[in-house]
Amino acid sequence: MTRLSAAFAKGRPALVTFITGGDPTPDATPALLDALVEGGADVIELGMPFTDPMADGPAIQNANLRALAAGTKTAHLFQIATDFRVRHPDVPLVLMGYANPMTIRGSEWFADQCQKAGVDGVICVDIPPEEDPELGPALRAAGISLIRLATPTTDAARLPAVLEGSSGFLYYVSVAGITGLQQAAQASIDEAVARLKAATDIPVAVGFGVRTPEQAAKIAKVADGVVVGSALIDLIAQHGANAAGPVRDLTRALADAVHSAR
Amino acid sequence: MTAQNPIPNTFRNQPDERGHFGQFGGRYVAETLMPLVLDLEREYEAAKVDSAFKAEFDDLLEHYVGRPSPLYFAPRLTEELRKSAPAGGGAQVWFKRDELNHTGAHKINNCIGQILLAIRMGKTRIIAETGAGQHGVATATVCARFGLPCVVYMGATDVARQAPNVFRMKLLGAQVVPVTAGAATLKDAMNEALRDWVANVHDTFYIIGTAAGPHPYPELVRDFQSVIGKEARAQMLSRTGRLPDLLVAAIGGGSNAIGLFHPFLDDPSVRMLGVEAAGHGLDKEHAASLAGGRPGILHGNKTYLLQDEDGQITEGHSISAGLDYPGIGPEHSWLKEVGRVDYTSVTDTEALDGFQLLCRTEGIIPALEPSHAIAAVKKVAPTMTKDSIVLVNLCGRGDKDIFSVAEHLGVSL
Q1: Which of A40, A69, A251, B85 has CB 3.0 to 4.6 Å from B90, enough for a Cys bridge?
Q2: CB B135 within 8 A of CB B103
Q3: Which candidate, B316, B336, B334, places its Cα nearest to that of B325?
Q4: pTM of model > 0.90
Q5: Least CB-CB distance to A74: which of B198, B299, B310?
């Protein structure tokens, strides 16, 4: 069993947390990742900063800019991942970001670095199934899960293409929009998760606009996982290098809510 | 096949069915947008073979935009450039006068086509990005003409340096949203337009201003702008009985250039020169993606981009806000790689010289974008024979630029 499948096989919904690597500095990221693990996160998404985060709202846009302004390089991200794997041998780590930083040195290079660093999966915002050859084959050959996004606009005709070649979990983007702003109506989430789970055996995690333990608990009643990002990023924006405590506390509250939702 | 770069039978059958121009182009968008991009592709395929769509497009171009634009032989510029040519040398310089279009640039050709597509798709709200403001003005214009609400994203830096166009857009009823992210120029405006689109997919049509973005945008923008090259080819044949020897056009995203070049791509005697913005110089800040960049993925397509070793996008710089973009349309990347089109670059200073040269010799105030093409012609025309014909796309007029030109020349208005 892979680390990712184990994280969704604990007999309870999983909490997936996102922070941007290098925000506020590359040196500060390891302690923040540890805070997520200590708070009870089941899966960690580590954002790869990009100059042009087109799918992100202001919170994560600014996190990307802070990370880049602090001099964060791709090499830092892989070092952070490598060190994380040593400290946390069992916690799945997923890199999330945009196509250009992932493919600029070639997809084989990227997949190889992921493998060496102990990265379990990759989420690439702007490589849809139609452009899979750009990244998918190299990741699959290296045994790294390609985690695809499904959205409210992904209709039944399109869903099989999204599921083809994806593994680890399916990330359901609950609103047609950017990260961190509005939240979807619970009824639409319930309906979408039921539709997705009928089409696939891989776990379905729901994200975008989830900020509070109360929201997370409602989603965890139907989904296999709940993704929280911008609310944690807001704490990092507010507390900077001293954000580990507040991040741990919010993660714990979210984890308690998600884990006990059913 | 053993040849490394086999010469295709035609250069005019791109992109392939997946929207790729060789290794370039494609549809690198978030999943939320993908179904919409596929809808647009289906709708465009249907519109292409719909004679009513073509008739409405042609009618608006003729009676609203003012097409065909003239083909003009520039006698005094030709003579001026012959002064620096060897005896018996110095090509004839001709202009395709797209600066005479309604709204003062080529941008309107594309906006007419795209708003007809938007209406066909039942969309009720239009968004656009703009750099110099020419595409924003053209989009606001067609929105007013068809009664659709219009939101234009524009970098805050550009809002400041293109104040007349901002006011024009507002007069036309558009909402102009200044974007403060990044360097607050065209790239950031495009990011913000994409964010709007992804949040409003159900009712919003994104009118992209250049031949870039996810497939089918590079193809449909090229097709709408190809009216420039089709007219120019017929006009040149009718006036001179022959084809031009060299086509020259400025390139930011590259829509005016591809519009001129595409109808000539399979005429082997016609050479083509795309002119990028070298800004302060190729070893300093510039916006020449082909000269100083390498292939990468941004804004929905794979193309040459200005970027660092990690794939972070670097800011372009040009005196011309319309060329100030760190990427280029994917078809130009392909045409460069297959060698069909040559690309060069000129600096801010050279473009300013070209601007003044055309003002003085022909009584035409060009925009700073085609001033780059004029600067390139100043270098290349004297190296050609006297009977050679150079055809330059005069893609915009300079009214919008007189304030920034005055500033650069040290004149206070």
Answers
A1: B85
A2: no
A3: B316
A4: yes
A5: B310
Contact predicate B167/B139, CB 8 Å? no
A1-44 pLDDT per residue, tens: 899 999 999 999 999 999 999 999 999 999 999 999 999 999 99
pLDDT (tens digit, 9 = 90+) per residue, B23-64?
999 999 999 999 999 999 999 999 999 999 999 999 999 999
What is the interface pTM, i.e. ipTM, of the complex?
0.96
Q: Compute φ and ψ for A81, nearest 5 degrees.
A: -65, -45
Q: Which residue of A has its CA nearest to B199?
A: A177
Count of CB atoms situated within 10 Å of the CB of B297: 26
Question: Domain A3-259, CATH 3.30.230.40 — does that match?
Answer: no
CB contact under 8 A, B32 and A127: no
Q: Which residue of A has its CA nearest to B193?
A: A54
SS3 A149: strand
B201, A153: Cβ pair inside 8 Å? yes
What is the full DSSP assignment across B108-174?
Answer: HHHHHHHHHHHHHTT--EEEEEESSSHHHHHHHHHHHHHT--EEEEEEHHHHHHTHHHHHHHHHTTP
Q: Give yes or no for B215 touching A (CB within 8 A).
A: no
β A43-47/A204-207 pair status? unpaired
Q: Report the alpha-carbon distance of residue B361 to residue B366 in Å, rounded.
A: 12
CB pairs under 8 A between A and B: 115
A54: which chain B residues are within 8 Å (Cβ-Cβ)? 30, 191, 194-195, 198, 299
Please report the pLDDT score of residue B184 as a whole number. Answer: 84
Domains plus CATH for chain B?
21-63+107-221 (3.40.50.1100), 68-104+226-408 (3.40.50.1100)
Supply the mean pLDDT for chain B. 95
Give the integer Cα–Cα distance in Å for A236 and A232.
7
Ramachandran class of B90: left when φ > 0, alpha when ψ lies in -120 to 50, beta otherwise = left
Is A121 in a helix, a strand, or coil?
Answer: strand
Nearest neighbour of B297 by CB, restricted to A61, A99, A151 = A99
If you ran DSSP here, which 8-state letter would residue B1 be given?
-
Q: Domain extents for chain A?
A: 3-259
The Cα B267–Cα B262 span in angstroms is: 10
Q: Is A45 assigned a catalytic role?
A: yes
Please give the Cα distance from A123 to A129 (Å, whole number).
12
- Residue B23 at interface with chain A, using a CB cutoff of 8 Å: no
Q: Which residue in the block uniquely carries the two structure tokens 């067609």?
A: B142
Q: Model confidence at B413, in pLDDT bands (50, 70, 90)?
A: confident
C-alpha distances in Å from residue A87, one per residue of A1, A6, A47, B390 = 20, 18, 19, 67
User: Three-state SS for A60?
Assistant: helix
| Beta-carbon separation of B195 and A104 below 8 A | no
Q: What is the DSSP letter of B61?
A: I
State the best of B24, B38, B297, B301 to mutate against chain A, taking most chain A CBs within 10 Å: B297
Residue type at position A12? R
Whether A42 is a known active-site residue: answer: no
Output the six-digit token pair for A25.
Answer: 């500095």
Q: Does B83 touch chain A if contact means CB atoms closer than 8 Å?
A: no
Residues 6 or more apart whose CB falls under 8 angstroms from that of B290 comprise B251, B274, B276, B304, B328, B332, B333, B336, B343
Distance between CA atoms of residues B168 and B20, nearest Å: 36
Phi, psi at A44, each rounded to 5°? -110, 125
For residue A189, with 0-12 CB atoms within 10 Å meaning exposed, 13-18 middle and 19 or more buried, which class applies? buried
